[in-house]
Amino acid sequence: MEIIPSSSSTELGSDDIAQLLARFDGRQGVNRSMSGRAQIEAQTDIEALRAWLARYIDSPRTYANYRKEAERLLLWAVLERRKDLSSLSLEDILAYRLFLADPQPAHRWVAQGRARPARHHAAWRPFAGPLSESSRNQALLILNSLFSWLVQAGYLAGNPLALSRQGRRQKKASAPQQRYLSRQQWRWVQDYIQSLPEDTPSEHRHKARVRWLFSILYGGALRISELIQARMADVQQRPEAPSSAQWWLQIHGKGDKWRRVPLTQELYEELMRYRQAHDLQGPPQALEPYPLLMSSGASDKHLSRAMAHVLVKQVFQGSADRLRSLYPDQESQARVLEQASAHWLRHSAGSHLADQGVDLRIIRDTLGHESIATTNIYLHADDDQRHRALEQSHRLGWD
Questions:
Q1: pTM to 2 decimal places
Q2: What is the C-alpha to C-alpha distance for residues 9 and 33, in angstroms, rounded to an integer?
Q3: Considering only CA atoms, which of 367, 374, 345, 348 is closest in space to residue 261?
Q4: Beta-bridge mates of residue 156
Q5: How far, in Å, CA of 145 to CA of 151, rounded?
Q6: Which long-range contacts (CB under 8 A, 24 or more apart) does 92-99 make?
Q7: Omega into 105 within 30° of 0, i.e. cis?
Q8: Which of 12, 111, 287, 347 makes an SS bond possible with 125, Cβ 3.0 to 4.6 Å?
Q9: Cβ contact 140:92 at 8 Å
Q10: What is the tens place of the pLDDT at every residue in 270-324?
């Protein structure tokens, strides 16, 4: 499980990288945890990265993307900052974000020409050029997942990237914007997901996971924080339904409140498709231990919030790239797609329901909006009416 290409020890510049990696190996990292309760055996930064990457060995695409970002950061820390990865501070992270927008010196970091040499070739470089804003954001999401896991594993004392992300969230909060996808943009995203390969078992599971992730975020209008803690056992059938069987998802939402989200027949079938891809037979059972969105490493563990965000951003970026290649005149639409995030899917669901003329009370109850909950007894939509409305008006639209 290689982190640094072996033949690159002297090819990225005049420095002897092998010696620098040995000098800044993390054993004396100032951010190393001193609790003495580490849950991994790693003694060096590279060993810690290998332990983190091992969780994704069965997902080649994810593994390759994660290794790329970890490798870039490790090399940058050693070559440009003369630091262990486990010594990086908030200031280093801010400098690294600027570096991603313009990797300099270019002869050390950027590959020449259109061809991308293999990782073991002497001409290999970590970058093809400057990263776009969306690619920089995706890189930092992956690294945030890395640092968070190393803290949880007891290897690091803290996550320096978390401080950087808090600052950006506070800045954005001063100018809130509501974003959503048009129906055509949603269609382009679905087309991209449909185009994902599924030739191997790992590709098949990855595609199923992505399709279910987007289906439930849009079809159920969920917050990602709600999805990552939901369980299969939270999907329940209402036996006293007046007509056909109704399936509902119990959600523990914002403000420590519970709500029931209707699962249309179409959305329920997507759940069955996802379960079959992970060898789970039949409908969810009351005592099932499985999460509603399973980790790629273990089906009994929840997919992390950071990883869910990474998957969403990867799909939106892939959708934008595919749109550009198929329809060069749709550049403005591609830019919209690569700016989208998981919360856009929730806003898209509400917007599309409203466009269909669905009663706003039904939309309110489905999204769990607290701001109009004071009209509880008089404006609360009837369950049967709400389920029928979503069944008739809120379609996923998969082929």
A1: 0.60
A2: 29
A3: 367
A4: 32
A5: 10
A6: 92/160, 93/160, 93/161, 93/163, 93/164, 94/164, 97/136, 97/140, 97/164
A7: yes
A8: 111
A9: no
A10: 999 999 999 998 999 888 889 999 987 677 788 888 889 999 999 999 999 999 9
